[in-house]
Amino acid sequence: MLGIETSCDETAAAIVMREQSGKGTIRSNVVRSQLDEHAAFGGVVPELAARAHVTYLDHIIAQACREAGIRLDQVDAIAATAGPGLIGGVLVGLTTAKAMAAALGKPLLAINHLEAHALTARMTNNVQFPYLMLLVSGGHSQFVLVRGVGDYERWGTTIDDALGEAFDKVAKLLSLGHPGGPAVERIARNGDASRFKFPRPLLREERLDFSFSGLKTAVRLQAEALAPLTDQDVADIAASFQDTVATIIEVRSRQALERFAAQFPGQAMQLVVAGGVAANLRIAAGLRTLCDTLGATLIVPPIALCTDNGAMVAWAGAERFMLGDTNGLDFTARPRWPL
Ligand code: KG4
Ligand code: ZN
Q1: In the chain, how long is the greatest CA-to-CA distance?
Q2: Any binding-site annotation on 136?
């Protein structure tokens, strides 16, 4: 399966094999990040992203085939992210996939980007259904119950900013650069996480939703109150913010796992984490402790497969292809597409 991903700022293509047994093998996984294109703007500029996808995608696909040691006409089918995401970029990948599918007479799989994140742990860790997924990336923060291929139930989502976005905005207001998550984590190592008490929006409510915009505002007000900031102030704010977020994620994940246990009594509790924020060691440590306490299994795929990549799209395509669930060439790109 060829997989193509262009829904945000990664131009990516991969070749993945799925055995009858369910085992997955990544034959190649080429990702070109557009960090340089967007660096000057402190965030992803959709028009620039789409143009860069046009420039690089053909080369990335050719490289994925070369590294896998196959010709394009040897793949069984072609999968591409068809949404949700920045529509210009999605159109580039999906249209390229359609053109190749038409020219080569291969089936097309129009993949939901969230579904691709959700199924990745089956490729890397052979996880069996059902399981709970926590997706925390620059564009999404949600809990999804994964019952089977194509059988998903969203249990909660953010009502404002995504978690990665909150990290990026906090980094920006602390002048730490983009992408913000890794920068905040690095600076936070020198900080005192107990110095500031930031709010935990929604946390007293039972629902499994997130809200990060009030937290971000509280961080901004604190930074303005202290200005000009010393290096120690910046480190303490970053550490306090990161700790607050880790607590929010832990509390919500506990609730989600308890709901999972109630719905599937006697079944193994499995929590799969996906998205770029999964790279955060403070958050991952909190989740590990929680899962140990509850007797749940925490599954964090290798971080290169947690962030956007082509292999996850190829794998989701392969899972759907095995079920005969292909798409017509008239499938249209979808900027919004909840699971
Ligand atoms: O999944 P991803 O690569 O792209 C999508 O948004 O789909 O996630 C990128 C996000 C960015 O917001 C970035 O700041 C955040 O993940 N991130 C982190 C860390 N590494 C990346 N956030 C917190 N801590 C990190 N170590
Ligand atoms: Zn993603």
Answers
A1: 63
A2: yes
Distances (CA, A) of 80 to 9, 83, 200, 307: 15, 9, 37, 16
Do 2-120+307-322 and 128-303 show the same overall fold?
yes
Q: Which ligand is nearest to the CA of 115?
A: 2
Q: Residue 220: name the closest of 166, 161, 182 by CA.
A: 166
- 2-120+307-322: in CATH 3.40.50.12780: no
Lateral strand order in the sheet of 10-18: 24-33, 10-18, 2-5, 78-83, 108-112
% helix / strand / coil in the chain, to the nearest 5? 50, 20, 30
Confirm or reject: Cβ of 10 under 6 Å from ligand 1. Answer: no
83 is in an annotated binding site: no
What tens digit of pLDDT does each residue of 186-225 get?
999 999 999 999 999 888 888 999 999 999 999 999 999 9
Within a 13 Å sphere around the CA of 196, how many CA atoms are in the beta-carbon half? Answer: 28
Specify whether the CB–CB gap between 187 and 234 falls below 8 A.
yes
E strands in the chain = 2-5, 10-18, 24-33, 78-83, 108-112, 131-136, 141-148, 151-157, 270-274, 297-299
In terms of phi and psi (left: phi > 0; alpha: psi -120 to 50; beta: otherwise), the region of 207 is: beta
What are the extents of the domains in the chain? Answer: 2-120+307-322, 128-303
Alpha helices (runs of H) in 69-153, residue ranges in sequence order: 87-104, 113-125
- Domain 128-303 sits in which CATH superfamily? ATPase, nucleotide binding domain (3.30.420.40)
Other Cβ atoms closer than 10 A to 151: 11
The closest ligand to the CA of 81 turns out to be: 2
How high is the ipTM of this complex? 0.98
User: Which H helix or E strand runs over 107?
Assistant: none
Cα distance between residue 312 and residue 314, in whole Å: 5
Residues of the chain whose pLDDT is less than 70? none
135 labelled ligand-binding: yes
Q: Is the CB of 277 under 6 A from ligand 1?
A: yes
Strands 131-136 and 270-274, by their bridges, are parallel
Pocket test for ligand 1, best of 11, 34, 38, 137 (most atoms within 8 A of CB): 137
